[in-house]
Automatic annotation (TrEMBL), chain B:
Transmembrane segments: 12-35, 42-62, 68-87, 150-170, 199-219, 225-246, 253-271, 277-296
PANTHER family reported for this sequence: BRANCHED-CHAIN AMINO ACID TRANSPORT SYSTEM PERMEASE PROTEIN LIVH, HIGH-AFFINITY BRANCHED-CHAIN AMINO ACID TRANSPORT SYSTEM PERMEASE PROTEIN LIVH
GO molecular function: L-isoleucine transmembrane transporter activity; L-leucine transmembrane transporter activity; L-phenylalanine transmembrane transporter activity; L-valine transmembrane transporter activity
Record's subcellular location: Cell inner membrane
Name of the protein in question: Branched-chain amino acid ABC transporter permease LivH
Alphabetical keyword list: Amino-acid transport, Cell inner membrane, Cell membrane, Membrane, Transmembrane, Transmembrane helix, Transport
């Protein structure tokens, strides 16, 4: 049966060989044209990847990332681009999953020929992706990944325009000890690079102040029922619940905490800085009084006034990481334009030069961290908004 | 003491939700011997339908909670039931006489289709529904207290009611007799004049409706969901079905309750980091000593 089939196929081939050959010729020509096209294309454009969770449970952050990067690229292009060449953005979706981050990073360097990347968002995605960018000689500026390890790895091409979790944890711990005077602190995290890293950083500073946490536990990302953990928080009589993680878990957690009648103060980091925190929690009343560490209000810099105004004129409030993303794009553009579009030279240049951005002047140290960190404490109110309090 | 009681309450509500979803797995397995991997995603679809139903009802100016609840339950259960029917019709019935493996792959495909379809049509963001029922019952125990929200009580009540009604339907009605006959011997049942294709469709619809019941209750309680929410809860419900003995209806309910309780008690009294490890170790242990689950009947080799 199989033999007959093969035979048949062979015959068919013979009769139509002429056609096949001409087909092959056409294909080759097309391919050559495509290559030529791509080459001219690449010459005219600077390809920059915008990598983050554009889909999935954390897509709200991907939206902030994209809005900021897109606006920055438009503004830079309108002002003549980078050394006369236009920025072309490529959206790379990692869904905040390390595996997918690796594959989109490979795609960015291999088929999109990106010279720089703004992103990724989640630390657990940025970590594996940063190695791929380093091997390919691509500049990486993350607007949001705060895990200390990212820059401690010593890769020459990695920068961030946000703070580090150890700095953030410091601010949280000193607030708990200094302002709240609390001694019974429950530390909860989501077992992820960012969440656990932040919780650990906070815990170690807390311990350095001589306060021992009364509870330290992880919960599972993607679950919605945390009642068992909350009952335990109640049983240890915690005054403060510190959560290292993102809003999709923080929302149900704080809601169920209140539903079980606990009045403990809920505190978290920059992983909950999104309006979605309120909708995931169910109602603004549940987030009332929630404390959160985040960089000094990104909208407070005078240099950003014009951009913010333009965002608002388009009906978009530049919340959370939007302006960080804009800043990251400005850093990339400035570094590339001063170094003739060579990404690795640009990385070297950033370590000794400062860049003025919509969030003020940014200076980087040897590792790629900001020289000055600016974490402050915010509080959510019963209307579902947050204000700086300290 | 109050803490243990509170954990029991947490576990019971969680377990009754697992039980409701597990019914879908166990009934489908019982009747055609396949694992419906798309079942968790049917649950996820029902969460979205719940949100749409609530939005529709409030749009028409209905504000009383009982009417919204009943309306949402009715709409969601009906529409999700229709999903169950359509899924069986297009993904499983054409493969009725092919190997078990083909249907399994088809089910995995269906699960991916549902996830992506919802993601594309509804957006990938976290969705939320407003809190409709607030307030809680507080019982003083010693120097502590047990707090149960009214929503939790409602979950317990409605899911027990749902399970009760289903047990009655399967045990006492003509439809139930047809289901049981088809489960025991499909060929014989069809020779005796039972339209087995119709019975199988009905089982899928019942499974989807039970998942919808869970979907409405959980969505109203937690208020948050996304297109991926069916995965973890689906795995847990499947575990519950296996634990209780897959194919057995009371087994699914019992398995759900045991799983929920063991999770809550382990997380609450020892550590939440390893609660899943504990639940699955429990599953392994039970399967070692009772390979067909707690209430499952060992499969008799037919000669």
């Amino acid at each position: 049966m199989l033999e007959r089939f093969l035979l048949l196929n062979n015959n068919e081939n013979k009769t139509s060989r002429g056609l096949y050959m001409s087909n092959a010729v056409v294909k080759k020509t097309l391919l050559a044209m495509a290559i030529a096209g791509a080459a001219t294309f690449a010459q005219a454009d600077v390809v920059i990847g915008v990598a983050g969770p554009h889909t999935g449970a954390y897509a709200a952050f991907g939206e902030q990332l994209w809005r900021g990067a897109e606006k920055a690229a438009m503004d830079i292009n309108a002002a003549g681009g980078i050394n006369g060449e236009m920025i072309k953005l490529v959206k790379a979706d990692d869904a905040c999953e390390p595996k997918q981050a690796v594959s989109v990073a490979n795609r960015l360097v291999d088929s999109d020929d990106a010279v720089a990347v703004v992103g990724h968002f989640c630390s657990s995605s940025s970590l594996p992706a940063s190695r791929i960018y380093e091997e390919a000689g691509v500049l990486m500026v993350t607007p949001a990944s705060t895990a200390p390890l990212l820059t401690d790895n010593g890769l020459p091409n990695v920068f961030r325009v946000c703070g580090r979790d150890d700095q953030q944890g410091d601010v949280a711990a000193s607030y708990i000890v200094g302002e709240l005077g609390a001694t019974r602190v429950a530390v909860i995290h989501d077992k992820d690079t960012y969440g656990k890293g932040l919780a650990d950083a906070m815990k170690s500073t807390l311990n350095a102040y001589g306060v021992q946490e009364v509870m330290y536990e992880g919960l599972t990302r993607g679950e919605k029922d945390f009642n068992a953990v909350i009952t335990k928080i109640r049983s240890v009589d915690a005054e403060v619940v510190y959560f290292g993680g993102l809003h999709s878990e923080a929302g149900p957690l704080v809601r169920q905490l209140r539903e079980q009648g606990s009045k403990a103060i809920f505190m978290s980091g920059d992983g909950i800085v999104s309006d979605e925190f309120v909708s995931v929690a169910g109602a603004p009343e549940y987030v009332d009084g929630v404390l959160m560490t985040f960089g000094a209000p990104p909208t407070s810099y005078p240099s950003g006034a014009k951009v913010i105004q333009e965002f608002r004129a388009n009906g978009y409030e530049p919340e959370g990481y939007t302006l960080y993303s804009y800043t990251a794009m400005q850093v990339v553009a400035a570094a590339l334009s001063n170094n003739n579009l060579d990404p690795m030279k640009a990385a070297e240049w950033l370590k000794t030069n400062s860049v003025s951005t919509v969030m003020g002047v940014k200076d980087f140290d040897e590792k790629g961290d900001l020289k000055v960190s600016d974490y402050v404490m915010y509080e959510w109110d019963a209307q579902g908004k947050y204000q700086q309090i300290n | 003491m109050d803490i243990v009681l509170q954990q029991l309450v947490n576990g019971l509500t969680l377990g009754s939700v697992y039980g409701l979803i597990a019914i879908g797995y166990t009934m489908v397995y019982g009747i055609i011997g396949m694992i419906n991997f798309a079942h968790g995603d049917v649950y996820m679809v029902s969460a979205y339908i719940t949100a749409i139903a609530i939005a529709l009802l409030t749009f028409f100016g209905i504000e009383s909670f009982p009417i919204i609840l009943i309306g949402t339950l009715f709409l969601t259960v009906a529409v999700t039931g229709a999903y169950g029917w359509v899924i069986e019709r297009i993904a499983y019935r054409p493969l009725r006489n092919s190997s078990r493996l083909a249907v399994l792959i088809s089910a995995i495909g269906m699960s991916l289709i549902l996830q992506n379809y919802v993601q594309l049509s509804q957006g990938a963001n976290q969705q939320g529904v407003p809190t409709l029922l607030t307030g809680a019952m507080r019982i003083e125990v010693g120097d502590g207290f047990v707090q149960i929200t009214y929503m939790k009580l409602l979950i317990l009540f409605i899911s027990l009611l749902g399970m009760g009604v289903l047990t009655y339907v399967i045990q006492k009605t003509k439809l139930g007799r047809m289901c049981r006959a088809t489960q025991q011997d499909r060929k014989m049942a069809s020779i005796l004049g039972i339209d087995t294709d119709k019975v199988i469709s009905t089982v899928f619809v019942i499974g989807a409706m039970m998942a919808a019941l869970a979907g409405v209750l959980v969505t109203l309680d937690y208020g948050a969901f996304d297109f991926y929410v069916g995965f973890i809860i689906g795995i847990k419900a499947f575990t519950a079905a296996v634990l209780g003995g897959i194919g057995s209806l009371p087994g699914a309910m019992l398995g759900g309750l045991i799983l929920g309780l063991s999770e809550a008690l382990f997380a609450g009294l020892i550590s939440s980091d390893y609660k899943d490890v504990f639940s699955f170790s429990l599953l392994v242990l039970i399967l070692v000593f009772r390979p067909s689950g707690l209430l499952g009947k060992p499969e008799v080799e037919k000669v």
